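Extended Data, panel c. Modelled sequence:
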Amino acid sequence: MRAPARALLAGLALLGWAMSASAAAQAATVASIRPSLRPDRLGASAALTLALGYSNSEEGEAGVPAPVRTIVVRLPAGLRIDLRGVQSCPADRLRRQGAGGCPSGSLLGRGRATLEVHAGSQTLPEQAAVWAFRGPDRGASPTLELLSQGYTPLDERTISIGVLAGDGAPYGSKLTVSIPPIPTLVYEPDASLTSLSLTIGRDRSVGLPSSCPAGGFAFAAASTFADGSTATATASVSCP
């Protein structure tokens, strides 16, 4: 075989290997979403709980996914998220003063998060408390500010901004959350989110539709990670 032909075949083989490796890396992250509504009564005001989970499915990765950068949560058609009249809190005040720096009327919900922190060949779990506050509007779109505060092994405070907008059927709205890098130890990767559970529902800010479609209320989550990979998950809540 002539040298140019051998070089071409070698290049194609290398390209094929790279594409396969990229596909494997993108398939490595497994995501899940578990929504719940309480009370689950049509037309009622409710508390919405969203539980998200991430793991790495490739052997040898210790179950730790890449750091997540964006989460788009799609909410069912007819589910009402009404933030009119709710006080807002500037993000810079949250950064400086934490949860106590915002008006009590701006608090929309609470939750918990678990992160994995790399320390050499080991990973250490980080438990963080999460608060959801009403943020200033971005144009015509309401925003939520998610304050996360961990203490050990890191004393770290981060703020993620979620923008609420309309969406197409079978969904009615979507919340796009941008998560900043969470630095850990020197020369180590950013912390990786492995679970997040958040309950939102203040006064009448969350309301169930008056009717339920066949198959229940549809939810979905699409996540993008620091390495460029993505993961999606869907779920539904049965009709009351």
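Residues 30-237 form one domain. This feature is highlighted in the accompanying rendering.
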